[in-house]
Write a structure and sequence with these properties.
This protein is mainly α and about 230 residues long. Helices cover about 90% and strands about 0% of the residues. It has five helices and no strands. It has helices at about 5-25, 30-60, 65-95, 100-110, 115-225. The protein is rod-shaped and about 170 Å long.
């Protein structure tokens, strides 16, 4: 049981005791004093409901190992508040003396048991709380190991992610190199075609020059004969 829950428990018992006193007083009063006590009882009920809400918030924030036992405690408190609300409404119209005697008898039967039993119950609760704290510490250790394992996993995943990025960059470079090789192949084939074209042009030019030389020789030879 957490320290905060213990504090709320003490306040709960104080409010319940005050409300029981108010419920006992109301049937014995008349007029405005009775109305004052009725209003006081309603305010105490509101305070108890707010207190239960705070307890439920503590239970929600409590460690998982303590949550079940604390929830059982809160359910018992809520049942007690419900019964007190019923008794409070009955006190509004109860004849003088009747509710006081009834409540006194109930209080004696329920609470006249030795206070030692309540102390023993509280000691048992503290013992259970210590055990829960021990279990909670073990759970915390396991949680820490799990967190460390999770961090290692994240580091491995991050490393794999960086390696994946490196592989993707290498793949992009290879694709770029492949594109450049293909472009170079086109360029080489174009140069080969140009070289072949130039070779044919040179051969044609040589043949044309030989033709002109032959023509000149032929022309000079026949000119000398004439």
């Amino acid at each position: 049981m957490s320290q905060k829950f213990e504090e709320e428990y003490v306040e709960f018992k104080q409010l319940v005791q005050s409300l029981n006193q108010v419920i006992t007083k109301i049937p014995e009063l008349k007029g405005s004093p009775k109305q004052v006590e009725i209003d006081k009882g309603k305010h105490l009920m509101e305070d108890l409901e707010d207190l239960i809400q705070r307890m439920e918030n503590i239970v929600r924030d409590a460690p998982l190992s303590q949550r079940s036992s604390l929830s059982t405690e809160v359910r018992g408190f809520k049942d007690e508040i419900k019964n007190l609300g019923t008794e409070l409404r009955r006190s509004f119209t109860a004849p003088q003396g009747s509710l006081r005697k009834e409540l006194f008898d109930d209080y004696e039967s329920a609470n006249s048991t030795p206070l030692i039993s309540k102390e023993e119950q509280r000691s048992q609760l503290f013992s259970i709380s210590d055990k829960m704290k021990s279990v909670s510490s073990r759970i915390t250790k396991v949680s820490n190991v799990a967190s460390e394992t999770e961090e290692i996993g994240r580091a491995v995943i991050g490393e794999l992610g960086s390696q994946r990025e490196s592989i993707l960059r290498t793949k992009d470079k290879l694709n770029s190199t492949n594109v450049k090789i293909i472009e170079s192949g086109f360029l080489v084939r174009s140069m080969i075609r140009r070289a072949s074209t130039n070779k044919y042009l040179i051969i044609i030019a040589i043949l044309f020059v030989l033709f002109v030389i032959g023509l000149l020789i032929y022309w000079r030879y026949f000119k000398q004969l004439n």
